[in-house]
Automatic annotation (TrEMBL):
Residue sites binding S-adenosyl-L-methionine per the record: 114, 138-143
GO cellular component annotations of the record: cytosol
Assembly mode: Homodimer.
GO-annotated biological processes: tRNA N1-guanine methylation
Gene: trmD
Entry EC number(s): 2.1.1.228
Protein name: tRNA (guanine-N(1)-)-methyltransferase
Subcellular location: Cytoplasm
InterPro entries membership: Alpha/beta_knot_MTases (IPR029028), tRNA_m1G_MeTrfase_C_sf (IPR023148), tRNA_m1G_MeTrfase_TrmD (IPR002649), tRNA_m1G_MTases_N (IPR029026), tRNA_MeTrfase_TRMD/TRM10 (IPR016009)
Family: Belongs to the RNA methyltransferase TrmD family.
Keywords in alphabetical order: Cytoplasm, Methyltransferase, S-adenosyl-L-methionine, Transferase, tRNA processing
Length: 238
């Protein structure tokens, strides 16, 4: 997968050199380009923002540098990749595991990190008229910029690309994969500070372990995120 990021803070993404995603880059599973929006300006101060049309507080990102940056990335992108452009935005659709799975199948994702009061609307309209554009929110709160949201999305998507996580089975049982939160995990020792690993997990009875884990998932989801509980479980176990 090819990922391009446009930002005024390219150094934010230095951490993509480490851990599993760093390894995935070294192995060629993920190809990353980080582009400084200011490199696409032509004035002495590398200006990327201006006052809002119609007045109001704050500054808005100017369309011209965005147009130049995105055109150059799209022109240089992999042929036949049908790129998708994602702009993180608190006004976008909510990012979730389903979207992460869908994005993990993409060949070329371009992320555009907004700052200030956001990006001139015409940038979204221009690229939506030419291809696939999504405004995506990390959650119902406001960040200072899109960089942290893009980092979160890249991590969630990147670990679903085949080969990035060593044991693919570890992805299957995670929270949100089957609509439920994950069951609690334990390791050795069997007793720590008088707290015991539940005996069923040490029983060797795989059927009983699977049943216990499912019950824990349902109980935890009901307690913490009742909004996620599938209707059939609400009816049969509620
Ligand atoms: N004025 C904008 C609004 O009210 O919708 C908020 C702008 S915010 C200060 C600056 C940038 O941070 C946004 O353009 C977006 O890139 C990013 N951002 C802020 N909150 C976000 C969220 N919940 N999810 C994704 N991106 C977010």
């Amino acid at each position: 997968m090819r990922i391009d990021i446009v930002t005024i803070f390219p150094e934010f993404f230095d951490v993509l050199d480490i851990s599993l995603l760093g390894k995935a880059r070294a192995n060629g599973l993920i190809e990353l380009g980080v582009h400084n929006l200011r490199d696409f300006t032509h004035d002495r101060h590398n200006t990327v923002d201006d006052t809002p049309a119609g007045g109001g507080a704050g500054m808005v990102m100017k369309p011209e540098p965005w147009g130049e940056a995105l055109d150059s990335i799209l022109d240089a992108g992999p042929a036949d990749a049908d790129p998708i452009i994602i702009f993180p935005s608190p006004a976008g659709v909510r990012f979730d595991q389903k979207m992460a799975r869908e994005l993990a199948d993409e060949q070329h994702i371009v992320f555009g990190c907004g700052r200030y009061e956001g990006i001139d609307q015409r940038v979204f309209d221009e690229y939506a008229a030419r291809g696939r554009v999504r405004l995506v929110s990390l959650g119902d709160y406001v960040l200072n910029g899109g960089e942290v949201a893009v980092m979160a999305m890249i991590e969630a998507v990147g670990r679903l690309i085949p080969g990035v996580v060593g044991n693919p089975e570890s992805l299957v049982e995670e929270s949100h994969e089957d609509g439920l939160l994950e069951y609690p995990s334990y390791t050795k020792p069997a007793v720590w500070r008088e707290r015991e690993v539940p005996p069923v997990l040490r029983s060797g009875d795989h059927g009983a372990i699977a049943r216990w884990r499912h019950e824990q998932q349902v109980e935890r989801t009901r307690r913490v995120r009742p909004d996620l509980l599938p209707t059939e479980l609400q009816a049969s176990e509620g």
